[in-house]
Design a protein that fits this description.
Arginase, Chain A, alpha/beta, about 15% strand, 8-stranded parallel beta sheet, 9 helices
Length: about 290
């Protein structure tokens, strides 16, 4: 492998002992605006060579071992690629590692459903979604595996869902959110908190599962910070909004896996670096929010 995550600081750890398994999944099949998400995983990994070892407040997760595997092949049918990624996630879990999936479009999160549905008791793990969009349509342009439908597949599998940063949605999304009782802190609600100190007081509902899978679509960030995504949207999260929310909403909970999706690299360097730094922050967060 030519590059692996944080290769400027650490060797590519053995998969048998690494705490984190980075799974590049360059899927780009159902994007609905600007393309380029197939290049997201490689850009995140390349930018990671510029990161420092320490994650502020969460130590040095790299010392726990990071194994970057070969990218998931995407030449065949989408369902086959998702199945291959699902198998890689299950293998990571079997090794006692935390899977870190790098997209690719948001459809890649479909690959996490078998782990959350089949390896844990029903309702024991919830998904914490950071996103500009609900992604709760039954299908988009006839495709039930679309990036715009991925969270519908999640809730249909009986996996509890909580959404953060939403600010762009359809009537169908809204109806599904109500039907499946999806909790949320939408972007307008967060804006009205007025200060980072108010955000620090937020929490997930007491009834929400204590084990979490985090899916972070980079369009959750404001488009001024994150222009390199398929549907950049104004009114989104700042870096410190996101980091604070991730920190407070996962307090006293365990993180069993995560993904970072929808980076579509452009000529600017900072979006790829931001997505890479976010990925490493999630590893740091997970290292302090784990039971294994």
């Amino acid at each position: 492998m030519e590059h692996w995550f944080l290769d400027s600081e650490f060797p590519n750890s053995d998969k048998e002992t690494a705490r984190f398994h980075v799974i590049p999944f360059p899927l780009e099949d159902t994007v609905s605006y600007m393309g380029g998400t197939a290049n997201g995983p490689a850009a995140i990994i390349e930018a990671s060579s510029q990161l420092e070892q320490l994650v502020e407040g969460f130590g040095n997760p790299g010392l726990l071992g990071i194994h970057t595997r070969e990218p998931i092949g995407t030449d065949g049918m989408v369902a086959q690629a998702v199945a291959a990624a699902a198998e890689a996630i299950l293998q990571a879990h079997n090794h006692g590692a935390i899977p870190v999936l790098l997209g690719g479009e948001h459809s890649v999160t479909n690959a996490a459903i078998p782990l959350l549905r089949d390896r844990f008791p029903r309702g024991a793990v919830g998904i914490l979604q950071f996103d500009a969009h609900m992604d709760l349509r039954n299908a988009y342009e006839g495709n039930t595996l679309s990036h715009a439908s991925v969270m519908r597949r999640v809730v249909e599998a009986g996996i509890p869902l909580f959404q953060v940063g939403i600010r762009n949605y359809s009537e169908e999304d809204l109806e599904a959110r109500e039907r499946y009782q999806v909790g949320h802190y939408d972007a307008s609600f967060l804006y009205n908190q007025k200060s980072i100190h108010a955000i620090e007081t937020l929490d997930l509902p007491a009834s929400f599962p204590k084990q979490l899978y985090i899916t972070f679509d980079v369009d959750a960030f404001d488009c001024g910070l994150m222009s390199a995504t398929g549907t950049p949207d104004p009114g989104g999260l700042s870096w410190w909004d996101a980091i604070t929310l991730l920190t407070v909403l996962t307090k006293n909970r365990t993180i069993v896996g995560c993904d970072v999706v929808e980076l579509a690299p452009n000529i600017l360097h900072h979006p790829s670096y931001t997505a890479s730094k976010l990925t490493y922050f999630l590893m740091g967060l997970a290292s302090k929010r784990c039971s294994q």
